[in-house]
Specification:
By secondary structure, this protein is mainly alpha-helical. The protein is built from four helices and two strands. A two-stranded antiparallel sheet has the order 1-2. The mean pLDDT is 87.
Length: 105
């Protein structure tokens, strides 16, 4: 693979695509850094990976969640006992959507 070279115009173009506003000084600073990254990627691409299966993680991952087994629910008075305010069997909370403050904005 040839030595990857990146120009100031290419850095400027990538910055535009990423919606980054870079100064000329920043573009001159980032160009050799991006070129260094591309050279590193090119070096990695030289490795022979024939017969190596692609993987997402270096170690096997196992689901650590417990089984979802339904159990008995808490009694309603136990659920509501720490609520600051209730309205019958419901939690009473301040209005969030459609409040007067929302419509004034």
């Amino acid at each position: 693979m040839p030595d990857p070279r990146i120009s100031l115009e290419q850095v400027r173009h990538v910055a535009k695509l990423a919606r980054l506003e870079l100064t000329d000084d920043q573009i001159r600073k980032f160009t050799p850094q991006l070129e260094s990254i591309l050279q590193y990627v090119a070096k990695i691409a030289e490795v022979d990976v024939t017969g190596v299966e692609p993987m997402a993680h270096a170690l096997p991952i196992h689901n650590v969640f417990r089984e979802d087994i339904p159990g008995p629910s808490l009694p309603l008075d136990e659920v509501l006992k720490n609520a600051p305010e209730t309205d019958g069997p419901f939690f009473k909370v301040p209005k969030v959507i459609g409040a007067d403050e929302d419509s004034a904005r």
